[in-house]
Amino acid sequence: MNAEFTHHRIPVTDDVALHAAVAGSGPAVVLLHGFPQTHLMWRHVAADLATTHTVICPDLRGYGDSDKPATGYSKRRMAADVITLAHALGHQRFALAGHDRGALVAFRAALDHPETITHLACLDVLPTLDMWDVLHGAPAAVAWHLYLMAQPPGLPEALIAADPDAFFGHFLDAWTRDPAALSDVRDTYLTASRNAIASIVADYRASAGVDLDHDAEDRANGTRLTMPVTVVQQDWGAALGYDAAALWRAWAPDLHHNTTTAGHYMAEEAPAETTRHIRRLLAR
Q1: Any catalytic annotation for residue 264?
Q2: Is 7 labeled as catalytic in the residue annotation?
Q3: How many CB atoms are closer than 10 A to CB 65?
Q4: Domain positions in the chain
Q5: Cα–Cα dist 279/273, whole Å
Q6: Which one, 106, 219, 226, 283, has the greatest CB density within 10 A?
Q7: For residues 91 and 28, is the Cβ–Cβ distance under 8 A?
Q8: Which string of DSSP letters, residue by residue, matches the chain?
Q9: CATH 3.40.50.1820 fits 6-283, yes or no
Q10: pLDDT single digits (tens) 44-101
C-alpha cells in the first residue's frame, strides 16, 4: 500500500485484533484477500477505489499481521470480525468484495448480515457447499490442497511445515498466468504464510466442516443474498463440468456473473478489469 493508506489495529473480539489499511473518503468498501496472500493483494485496486470511496483492506483472522488464535475460523466468525472492524471504523453499512478465501468470508457476511452489506463481489470462488459438490474424479485433483487441509489437526501442519515455501509457492506459481504481477509481493506472501501455517490450515479445515454445515442450513431454509452481487471467475466450470453462473444464481437473484482470461490472482494480474467490475457493482 502506498503512503496514502493509514494502518490500524482494531480489536474484534476480546482476544483478537485485525490489522487493516484504510484510505480515501466516501461510501465504504471493504476488500478481503485470498490465499496465500495478505491485504496487499488489493494494492492496485484499492488505490483506484480510494479516489471515490473509503477503502478498508484488512488481513483476515489468521493471516498477515492480524492475530492468529487457535480457534475461531468458521466463516461466520471471520465474517463477524469484518463487521465489527468496519463498525469500529465508523461504517454501519458498506460494500464488500472478497477474493478466494476472502470471498467465502464475504459470502457468509452477506448472508448473515444483509442489513449491513450493500453490495457483494466474489472473485474466483464458489460457495463452500457448491465447491465440494462439483469436485468429482481426476479433474478434482486441482483442489488437492482442500483435501489435505481438511484432515484432522497434526498431519497437514507437519507436512506443510516441512517446506512451507514449496507449498505456498506452488500456488503463487501455478495459479497465475502473469508471474510478474506478483514479483513485488511474492516474498512477502511466503513469509506471511510461513508464519501462519496452523491458522491457514484451520481456515481451510473449517470449510470441510462447520462452513459446510452453515451453507447447507441456509440452502435448506431458502436463504438468499438480497443485495446486488457480482461474481468474476476463471472458467473453471468448463474445465470441471458445471455451470458456475447457475450455481451462483441459486444464491443471488440479482447477479452479474463474469468470466476473465486473467489468472486466479486477477486483482493483481488484471487490476483495471477487476476495478471496473467492482465499480459497476457499486453503481447498481
Answers
A1: yes
A2: no
A3: 18
A4: 6-283
A5: 10
A6: 106
A7: yes
A8: --TT-EEEEEE-SSS-EEEEEEE--SSEEEEE--TT--GGGGHHHHHHHTTTSEEEEEPPTTSTTS---SS--SHHHHHHHHHHHHHHTT-SSEEEEEETHHHHHHHHHHHH-TTTEEEEEEES---HHHHHHH--TGGGGGGHHHHHHTSPTTHHHHHHHHSHHHHHHHHHHHT-S-GGGGTTTHHHHHHHHHTTHHHHHHHHHHTTTHHHHHHHHHHHHT----S-EEEEE-SHHHHHT--HHHHHHTT-SSEEEEE-SS-S-HHHHSHHHHHHHHHHHHH-
A9: yes
A10: 999 999 999 999 999 999 999 999 999 999 999 999 999 999 999 999 999 999 999 9
Q: Which of 67, 100, 112, 124 is catalytic?
A: 100
Cα distances (Å, whole numbers) of residue 176 to 24, 68, 138, 263: 29, 27, 22, 5
Instruction: Assess contact for 119 and 95: CB atoms under 8 A.
Output: yes
Q: How far does Cα 130 stand from its chain's mean position?
A: 16
Instruction: Indicate the pTM of the whole model.
Output: 0.97
The 10s digit of each residue's pLDDT in 234-269 is 988 777 789 999 999 999 999 999 999 999 999 999
| Catalytic one of 33, 145, 264, 277 | 264
Decide: 197 and 157 in contact? Cβ < 8 Å: yes
272 vs 48: CA distance, rounded Å: 9
